[in-house]
Write a structure and sequence with these properties.
Blueprint lengths: L2 E5 L12 E5 L3 H14 L4 E5 L2 H10 L5 E5 L8 H12 L5 E6 L4 H8 L4 E6 L4 H8 L2
Parallel strand pairs: 2-3, 2-4, 4-5, 5-6
Antiparallel strand pairs: 1-3
Helix pairs in contact: 2-3
């Protein structure tokens, strides 16, 4: 499947901000580090990561959870973050996910471009830190 599923704790819907967190980044080390950080924040019972955006999109399309946090890298082979967002826009009307761009890009144009997608709720420059994520989620 190209994804690794990381079950953190038994689910308790009253305890978590999200039902699921989806990490989409072609770097497995980034995904591992981000999973560990998110685990410490205790904001979701489960995290799943994908090295390929297309597989992540297919997975998201099959999920009923409407309370998902998606952390999306921009620069990936085959389907990049922008392609993912364009395809996700078709699903978005049925979903209420929180989509945050997580990228090493410092290009101001990338931030501007992400704002064109109304469902993108933030842009974080790598590396992901507790402070950066908490700041965006407290909006």
């Amino acid at each position: 499947m190209g994804a690794s599923f990381y079950n953190l704790r038994p689910p308790d819907p009253l305890m978590y901000l999200f039902d699921l967190i989806v990490l989409i980044d072609d770097d497995p080390i980034n995904n591992l580090i981000n999973k560990r950080l998110i685990n410490k924040l205790n904001i979701a019972p489960s995290i799943i990561d994908f090295l390929e955006a297309e597989k992540a999109l297919q997975y998201i399309d099959t999920q009923n959870s409407l309370n998902t946090l998606i952390l999306l890298d921009i620069n990936m082979p085959v389907m990049n973050g922008w392609d993912f967002l364009s395809s996700y826009a078709v699903l978005e009307n049925q979903r209420k996910d929180v989509v945050i761009m997580l990228s090493s890009s410092i290009d101001h144009q990338d931030r501007q471009k992400s704002r064109a997608f109304t469902f993108v709720q933030g842009f974080i420059e790598k590396p992901l830190t507790r402070e950066k994520l908490e700041k965006l989620l407290k909006r």
